[in-house]
Amino acid sequence: MDPSRCYSSQPRTLRCSWTSSNPGRRFYGCEQYGMVGGCNYFFSFDPPMCERSRQVIPELLRSIDRTESQLHHVQAELRQVQAELRTVETELQRVSQRGKRMKGIVGGFLILAVDT
Ligand SMILES: [Zn+2]
């Protein structure tokens, strides 16, 4: 048997396990695993994980998931606040232009009052 190939004679691929018993542990597996013509070839690349790693790494992964979830929530809130800000800026521009027109009208009245 060619050591660079799996049971089904496909090139073996270096993969990474994310199971709770082997989080982050690399292994060689069948390139076609789970597909037609693939096999369940397994050859460990990394040594067995210590108990501490099996406890800590899944907790770190859960922490990353929670943080990413919070980030997505904050990003959604930010998009909503940015949309509200655009609305307020548009309204502010409209009010500001109206104020300028009013100043012009008042200024015109003052000129008329002084001239008469
Ligand atoms: Zn295979």
- Bound ligands, each once: zinc ion
Q: How far is the first residue's CA from the last residue's CA?
A: 111 Å
Instruction: Give the strand content.
Output: 5-15%
Structural class: mainly alpha
Query: Helix and strand string, N-terminal first?
Result: EEEH
What does this entry look like structurally?
By secondary structure, the protein is mainly alpha-helical. The chain folds into 2 domains: 1-49, no CATH class; 50-116. The protein is built from 1 helix and 3 strands. It has a 3-stranded antiparallel beta sheet with strand order 1-2-3, with no helix packed on it.
Features:
binds zinc ion, 116 residues, mainly alpha
Brief summary:
Keywords: Coiled coil. By secondary structure, the protein is mainly alpha-helical.
How are the SSEs ordered, and which strands pair?
Elements: E1 12-16, E2 26-30, E3 42-44, H1 51-115
Antiparallel strand pairs: 1-2, 2-3
The structure holds zinc ion.
